[in-house]
Design goal:
Layout: H1 5-8, H2 23-39, E1 43-48, H3 51-58, E2 73-79, H4 84-102, E3 107-112, H5 118-125, E4 132-139, H6 158-161, E5 162-164, H7 173-178, H8 182-188, E6 200-205, E7 208-214, H9 219-238, E8 247-253, E9 256-263
Parallel strand pairs: 5-6
Antiparallel strand pairs: 1-2, 2-4, 3-4, 6-7, 7-9, 8-9
Helix pairs in contact: 2-4, 3-5, 4-9
Length: about 260
């Protein structure tokens, strides 16, 4: 399967060198953060340059399998109002920032801290830091590894995430190829999601793509994942000459939430 250049660049590093990021790169990251803060008033990013304080404070409370990801720097995401739309935008903006950081030849890793107690967050991030639920670790990985579908855990097939006209109605590969989006949907399957839940579903109605999210007990994290996938879709569609944005219209749809639409 052919992967787009965009998704091939997607990588996650869990072992960072102790080397700090040069000052000019950190300043560039601050400019990117400020730009996104201006775009979305309910989203706020903060850079914590002394990563040792963050790592030590979260040791045993966050990370992967109870092991904190230690990095020289961290970026924190604070969603000021936890409305579903803002959570969705949070995932979109965090991955947009993450991708721009990767473009600076740096390595990154998402860290979820939504289950960390408020007192710990206050001690690490300050009195106003209790709303911080996601971090990006930044630095130089000890070993870079590209986002490779051959080494990821099981993924749903294209036919299991993309449908024709209505959810559950099979779509043919030929139809997706006729619209030039088969490779895009093949690639987007390998995007990361919490517990590999892969909550995204798409319906192709003529030249319109509708996005849905499977309901679960962890809708907040799934909304973050949906924000990420919407960003991926936009970026990958750009590689085939389609430069448009999703129209978001969150609403209940039975076993799913309707997220929005995109015109090819």
């Amino acid at each position: 399967m052919l992967m787009t250049n965009f998704l091939q660049k997607r990588k996650s590093v869990r072992n960072f060198k102790k080397d700090t990021v040069p000052r000019d790169s950190l300043e560039n990251i601050k400019l990117l953060m400020d730009e996104l803060d201006r775009e979305e008033s309910e989203i706020n990013f903060s850079l914590y340059e002394n990563g040792k304080i963050v790592a030590e404070g979260l040791r045993g409370k966050a990370g992967y399998a109870g092991v904190m990801i230690e990095a020289p720097h961290y970026i924190a995401l604070d969603i000021k109002n936890d409305k579903p739309l803002n959570i969705l935008k949070g995932g979109y903006c965090l991955e947009k920032l993450n991708t721009k950081i990767v473009d600076l030849d740096l390595d990154t890793c998402w860290i979820t801290v939504d289950e960390v107690d408020h007192e710990t967050k206050k001690a690490i991030f300050g009195e106003n830091g209790t709303g911080i639920d996601y971090l990006i670790a930044i630095g130089y990985g000890q070993k870079k590894k590209f986002f490779d579908p051959e080494v990821t855990s099981s993924r749903l097939t294209v036919e299991e995430i993309v449908f024709a006209d209505t959810l559950g109605n099979p779509i043919s590969i030929e139809t997706l190829e006729n619209y030039g989006v088969f490779d895009v949907f093949s690639s987007v399957r390998f995007a990361p999601s919490h517990k590999n839940f892969q909550p995204w579903r798409f319906v192709l109605k003529g030249s319109v793509v509708e996005a849905y999210m499977v309901k679960s007990d962890e809708d907040t994290r799934s909304l973050i994942d949906m924000g990420v996938i919407l960003f991926y879709m936009e970026e990958m569609l750009k590689t085939i000459g389609i430069e448009k944005k999703w129209t978001i219209d969150l609403k209940d749809a039975g076993k799913y939430y309707y997220i929005g639409s995109f015109t090819l």
